[in-house]
Amino acid sequence: MPAEVSRINPRDPEPYYSKGIQERFSVNPIAALQKSPEFATIAFHPCLDEHLARSARRIINGGLENEVPAGWPMKLDGPMAWTGGDFPDESRFIYYLSSDDRDEVRKALMHFKAQRLDRDEVSKSNFPLPTLASRFTKTCEEVYNGLGAMILRGLDVEKYTPEDLLVVFLGVSSYIAEQRGVQDRLSTMLSEDALSFLQSRYVLTRT
């Protein structure tokens, strides 16, 4: 694919539309670039004033398009299309670890540490969860073919050091997705901010 096609935003080396999206919906990235010559710069912490300014410019320029591109579906349905109002309670997307579950995770951590491996070597083979593995098979189905996210609660994160908590996160996650992605262009696997987030929440999402 030519560089001018794969790189929509000259300031962003990542493709604006993935190859799969381009092929599935016949997206023409060059046309998208010509229709949107300017790109908003949105910081990690949104700014209300900048948002209002962008909204005003959009209105002046005719507003947003109100028709989907040719070949795109007019409506999305199925288990992946939902709103918060579809769930009367949290039971559909939250799994609470039992005391036996927590003990199994703790033993898996001890087993991994006894092998003196680097934490980036964590996998299902060296972080054994014989009982939880079957539960995580159902979680995988929900993440990849259902809601797209599941939340695990009850891990007692305060009982782990940050380093051990990272191993637990990687070990449990290896049952959901064996291939790990990076968080930024520096190939960071798990930043300090993300580690702090883990100490308060444990979320598994489809990416």
Q: What is the topology?
A:
Elements: H1 3-6, H2 19-25, H3 29-35, H4 48-60, E1 94-96, H5 99-114, H6 132-145, E2 149-153, H7 162-173, H8 192-198, E3 203-205
Parallel strand pairs: 1-2
Antiparallel strand pairs: 2-3
Helix pairs in contact: 5-7
Radius of gyration (CA) equals 21 Å
What class do helices, strands and sheet pairing give?
mainly alpha
Can you count the beta strands? 3
User: Which spans have pLDDT < 50 for at least 5 consecutive residues?
Assistant: 1-16, 32-37, 201-207
Number of discrete helical segments = 8
Walkthrough of the structure:
The chain is mainly alpha-helical and 207 residues long. The protein is built from 8 helices and 3 strands, in the order ααααβααβααβ. It has helices at residues 3-6, 19-25, 29-35, 48-60, 99-114, 132-145, 162-173, 192-198, and strands at 94-96, 149-153, 203-205. Strands 1-2-3 form a 3-stranded mixed beta sheet, with helices on one face. Helix 5 (99-114) packs across helix 7 (162-173). The longest helix has 16 residues, at 99-114. The protein is elongated, with a radius of gyration of 21 Å.
Put the structure in a nutshell:
The protein has helices spanning 3-6, 19-25, 29-35, 48-60, 99-114, 132-145, 162-173, 192-198, and strands at 94-96, 149-153, 203-205.
